[in-house]
Every structure is written in structure tokens, then in C-alpha cells.
Amino acid sequence: MSSIKASDDMSQVPPEQLQRFLDILAKDIVSTVNGKLDFQTNFNCTLISVPFTAANTQQAILHGLGRVPVGYIKTRASANMEVFDGTSGNTSNVLYLQASAPGTVGLLIY
Fold first, then answer.
1. 65 with 43: CB under 8 angstroms?
2. Cβ atoms of 83 and 49 closer than 8 Å
3. Which of 26, 65, 73, 110 qualifies as a FRET site for 39, CA 20 to 30 Å off?
4. What DSSP state is assigned to residue 3?
């Protein structure tokens, strides 16, 4: 994955070269972003697989974000199951969740 390389020093661009600078910046953004974004590289999140061995039982999940998560998205599941918040407060290391049935889920935690 590449990164956008245009200068952040826009105040130094002479007015007669501003259009050229903006054209280069726009092309760089398009070539960097179009079809090349993925969650783990571009967003402050983690993708993990979590096994739930029993229904409606809180589970502590180490997420590795280093901050309290804002939320989570179920990306896949091995069974027909819902994932929902646990009763304990989440921390910068642990997310507490429960599931409606036993099974394994993929989670995007952000």
C-alpha cells in the first residue's frame, strides 16, 4: 500500500503553479485510494476471530488497540448467532462481548 506523496507545504507553492500542484495531488489521491483501501492498513482497527463456547456468556477479548474500542462489526460467523455487548466495561486492552449461540465469529473492532 502506498501513501500520498504531495507536499504538505502548500503555502510555499507559487500561485502560478497552484493548479499544477492540485492536479498532481488529485492524481496521487486517486491512484493511492481507488480500490486499494483495506481496514487493517488504513484504519485504527483490528480483525480477529473469536470462539464463543457457550450462549449468553460474557467473554473477555484482547483486542490490542491500546484504547477503548468505539465499536465492532461481525464480519463472519460459523453459526446463526448474534454478538452483543457484555456487562463489564471495555478497557484499552479488553472488549467484553457475548453471543446468542456457540460458534466462532470474525470481528472488526474499531
1. no
2. no
3. 26
4. -
Domain boundaries, the chain: 1-37, 43-109
Place of cell 493511492: 32
Q: What does the block give as the cell for 18?
A: 497552484
Q: Tell me which residue has cell 479488553.
A: 94
- Distance from CA of residue 13 to its chain's centroid? 35
Would you state the cell numbers that stand for residue 28, as one nine-digit string? 496521487
Residues contacting 63, CB < 8 A, separation 6+: 46, 48, 69, 93, 94, 95, 109
Q: CB neighbours of 65 closer than 8 A, spacing ≥ 6?
A: 44, 45, 46, 92, 109, 110
Q: What is the pLDDT of residues 23-73, one digit of tens each?
A: 888 888 888 888 777 777 778 899 999 999 999 999 999 999 999 999 999
- What are the φ and ψ backbone dihedral angles of 76, each rounded to 5 degrees? -165, 165
Cross-strand bridge partners of residue 52: 103
